[in-house]
Sequence to fold (416 residues):
Amino acid sequence: MTAEKRRAPAGAAVLRGEITSAIRRALMQELAAVGYGRLSIEAVARRAGVSKTAIYRRWNSKLDLVLDVVSAVASRKLPMLDTGTLDGDVRLLLLVVSGALGHPVASQIIPDLLAEAARNPQIAGTLQSALKDYQDRIGKIVIGRAVERGELPSGADPRTAADLIVGPIYWRMAIARLPLDPAELDRMARAAVAALRVACAVPEDELA
Amino acid sequence: MTAEKRRAPAGAAVLRGEITSAIRRALMQELAAVGYGRLSIEAVARRAGVSKTAIYRRWNSKLDLVLDVVSAVASRKLPMLDTGTLDGDVRLLLLVVSGALGHPVASQIIPDLLAEAARNPQIAGTLQSALKDYQDRIGKIVIGRAVERGELPSGADPRTAADLIVGPIYWRMAIARLPLDPAELDRMARAAVAALRVACAVPEDELA
Fold:
């Protein structure tokens, strides 16, 4: 009763939102199970418990649906990384990334989409702009605040942050697929901070 | 004439070797063009200019052929990285890796095989052992020699080398797919050396 009362004002719109979410969830599960190449709208509809029409009312094609879901996931807010120190922020970011990469659905979907991106310019474009956005936000949050605190020089280039912080953990977990225990995560965080300090140092010839 | 004379002693074996090489090359090109899922032995035979029988005489299946080629590529020797300093060795390794990642065939095949690995345990196993071998060799060459020179402490863990050296450049070129100019490659090398120094430092509680 309470739930229905709460729902009442938004009415059908809420219901549509729930179907959309169910379709998105089903798409992620299908992508993980069979990959983009073998994915069918019919299987997504079956898994979501909706009609194919319900899907085609929202998206024109399988590609449309996948691009939309990728954008939606990519634009999720990053947790507020503000531990008060660069070391703490980098360690927290590595924890967040290791959680995401360790997720079984993500660990199957990400490589699949990257492989499709090598052949499909639309998927490549969407992934690249999502990644660029993600890199920019990491740079702004982690590097920007470290510069404010005086932990990094003001000339620090935010673009290097993702390479140096996310690169090693992505390689370890998603490419080499080796485990990373908490002590190693700590060590990786300290190494990333050292790398950032060197990469963000203003070149000597610009100090003249 | 000279070529035939040179070839004579090995006879038919040499010819077979050439066909094998042609099939391997054709497989790489097909993999890059259509991906593992859509790859057919027929198309590989057509591209190599050989019969399907010539392929099935050598490999039992498409999977067999792909696993063999992956192993063959992965076991290629790393160039002797011995510039005399850790900085030099890391920079040279980054140059080699950037060359490999920038190769159009590699940049399509690698993500495709990683995606298949998430679903096919045999591909995953072959890739993982090839990568492990590669990581071990990098570790032994780069870390081992730096320890001998006194540039890194003797407790240095060779396994971290690939994460910290290859991770950032792989992220930059293969995931974010952004260019890397020579000045940035230099900066990435200096950052990797700083990261290695921190990651390889013997923990304080072990110095007691």
In short: Chain B has ten helices and no strands. Residues 2-65 of chain B form a domain with the Arc Repressor Mutant, subunit A fold (CATH 1.10.10.60).
